[in-house]
Amino acid sequence: MKKTPITIIGGYLGAGKTTLINSILTSPQPPKNLAVLVNDFGDINLDAQWIKEKTPDGKVIGLTNGCICCTIGDDLAQALENLRAQSDQIADASSVEHILLEASGVASPHKLKRQCTYPGYYPRAAFVLVDADNYEKYCLDKFVGYLVKQQVDEADYLILSKQDLAPTFKLETSQPVLVAQNPNIFSTAFDIHSSGPKKNVAPVETQTHAHGFNSSSLKQSKNLTLSELENLCRQLPKEVHRVKGHVQIEAQTYLLHRVQRRLAVEPIEQDARNSLTSNQLVFIYLDYAQQSVEHHLRLHWQHWQQV
Amino acid sequence: MLTLFRARSIITMNQSMPRATSVLVKDGLIIEVGEEENMLPWLKREDYQVDEQFAGKIICPGFIDPHLHPSMAAVLLPMEFITAMRWKLPWGTVEPSTSSAAFDERMQLLHTGKNDGDENQPEPLFIWGFHQLWHGPMNKARINAISKTRPIIVWHRSFHELYMNDAAMQMAQMDAKEIKQGDQIDIDNGHFFENGLGYAIQRLNPWILAPEVYAEGLERLKKVVHYGGHTSIGDLATGLFDFETEATTLANLLEGADVPFRTRLVAHSARMSAGGKTLAEAVEKAEGLVDRNSHRLHFGKHIKMFSDGAFFSTLAQLQEPGYIDGHHGEWLTPPEILEKNVRAYWNAGFQIHVHVTGDLGLELAIDVLEKMQFERPRFNHGYTFEHFGISTPEQIKRIKALGGQISANAYYLHELSDIYAKDAVGYERASQMARLATAFREGINTTVHSDFTMAPAEPLNSAWVAVNRVNSQGNIMCPEECLTPEQALQAITINAAQVIGMASITGSIRAGKKADFTVLDEDPLECDPMHIGDINIHATVFEGKVFPIAKI
């Protein structure tokens, strides 16, 4: 059964979730067939001019730019059901192909991702916004110190906001960090395009300058065994912090995720596999080591093509 | 008509006259309580009748549970109970089932005893109360063994998981193809938990939330409240599922001459703010709720908020050393938002009730109160800490200094202190949950509640736990925190009335208050303290009208 991907936007209060979601909802050319789940319509402050129509119970609204917006309330399960049941009442919402989920400020990304494995849906990625101006202060807070650190640890991708207020702030992390002021933030971050062929399921890193990191993508052109893959990964220079994507090992496609020395390889299912156009891996490394890393990849990953 | 009730003894809860033997009642009000020979000035003036039906009984002020959930009860009570603890229900006491075999035996009995019309499409059987610690592992095969044709749904006691047999999954139109094994749905075992539960509930809603089932649930709730000896209750928080639906249904079913209790309705603050309202608008909406008041249903200047997660799910937020396994609890509201919300209602003169379960959740609620007192001092603000699972002695001193009240779920100690000692937080903190004696020593207005359906809606049972502190394993947990029977009775009468803002009209027996009584066969202040939970409730009197309780 076809599953709809859910992208989670998390982060503590004031990190910029609402601003980000608002910019997507009011964008003239948003991603197609996108539904956005928010905690409360009041949070996002949508002007009446953006609203095209509403369902009778007021829980699902259709926007003039084609997006659908839906409230979560207390219950994600209920919201997903509402969406499924009512999105067809809203014209233009032929089928929701992608969901953006606004996480509560106190949510744990891992826990939320598990909730997104609701039948018919799957969690694509968790983006966590980090408030450059207040993060360090929050880390010391007796109530939420552990939580803001946990959110960063559990994120797949981090988006740094309010850098202009704290230009020297540096987040200690091995995850890729994107910058909120980047004008391409949502096509970069969410890899959703308003037109064009369907993209693969795997989140593809881009070349956007990340805060101290660069990335390279390689496409697989030859089959390999698991031990060959493990060997290759073991030999990667230490400046490569992260590798992510899909590989084909024998007859099976796997999701690969390597963070520093830890390698995780998980088989993925038939239907997800069918929507992949190719097997690619993205390598994320410290930007000052670009030359040596690219050299290493050319040398040792010679059966893989530069993308 | 002026009525003189004679009793073996009347416990007034008025320290100026703690005991009496007669009470004079007219038009639902207490005219005078005391000794009959002192009542002649009243009795001379008009005709009166002597009511001897309670002559051999003990009359107490009507019991009050200041924190339960009628809506949750309405969903749960239509189900059949199979529980590890005893539940005294008006339609029959459910004796404890404390083994796998006992659970199955009762499940079988409930199945065969259900007389449905249609053999081919038997009515579903909903069971609540399962817990693996007592009843062993549950799965689809086990339920299938009871019946392959009747849909049977077994709810975990915590309400956070359930199990179904094949017939139930078929009834709920669950498509095995749609469900991936492992998404918090163990389809092979018919087990749905956490988010999988959300999915199951969505599919089962047509049965669980069918209007006639919900209405039946509320009818049962009325009986349960009556049988528990309550004459007043607090609904904390109206709008748990849906504000308008609940407010309307309660207005229809918990009002009327046959309803022997009144309800303080405390709105869920999130429902006031829903739909993009500003805080100022939310406060205004909350203030306007009193326009809906009827004789027995009262909104007032009360509001409910939430700090940390559920105690039954070990989601309470704890200070160091935290949980044994290192996990963190949950915030139900971000700290800054809780502060903002509290401030808005504080400045509007509301009494704020905050759900707190762990000592870090409590710390947040106390810090916020302290901030409010610094910004705009108030006396008699009534800020109440609800549930009060784990606390420290230092926090109790702060609560005293800041003028707060405590409404504790004492039952946590009975059902959870053993598991908490072994798995969650260790013996020291587990044994000291519900730190009631310290609260009383500090002179804080302290009450106990059931949070029904989390604990039985039986004030005498809550009082029994508070006095004896015996847990499910029969162990006494921290006797230093035991209440005296006198304190426990205060906790379920006058102190509870105070917490729901009704102390001027009920909670004790004195001239001018409503004639709300609970009539007992035995004296809770004289009997063996271990016996308090077993005292038979003979009847209640609500605003002067007698509501007998048939012996179960």
Question: What's this model, at a glance?
Answer:
Chain A is an alpha/beta fold and 307 residues long. Chain A is built from ten helices and 15 strands.
Low-confidence stretches of chain B: none
Largest sheet, strands/sense/barrel of chain B = 8 strands, mixed
Lateral arrangement of strands in the main beta sheet of chain A: 3-4-5-2-6-1-7-8-9
Residue-averaged pLDDT of chain B, rounded? 93
Question: What is the residue-averaged pLDDT of chain A?
Answer: 79
What is the rounded distance between the termini of chain A?
31 Å
Q: What helical percentage do the residues of chain A reach?
A: 25-40%
The DSSP helix count of chain A reads 10
Report what the structure shows.
The complex is a heterodimer of chains A (307) and B (552). By secondary structure, chain A is of the alpha/beta class. Helices cover 25% and strands 29% of the residues of chain A. Chain A is built from 10 helices and 15 strands. Chain A has helices spanning 17-25, 41-44, 76-86, 109-115, 135-139, 145-154, 185-190, 226-234, 270-274, 290-300; strands at 4-10, 34-38, 51-54, 60-63, 68-71, 98-102, 121-131, 157-161, 177-179, 213-220, 240-249, 252-259, 262-267, 280-286, 304-306. Residues 192-211 of chain A have low confidence and may be disordered. By secondary structure, chain B is α/β, with parallel strands linked by helices. Chain B contains 20 helices and 24 strands. In chain B, strand 11 and strand 12 (161-164) form a beta hairpin. Chains A and B meet through helix 2, helix 3 and helix 6 of A and helix 7, helix 12 and helix 13 of B.
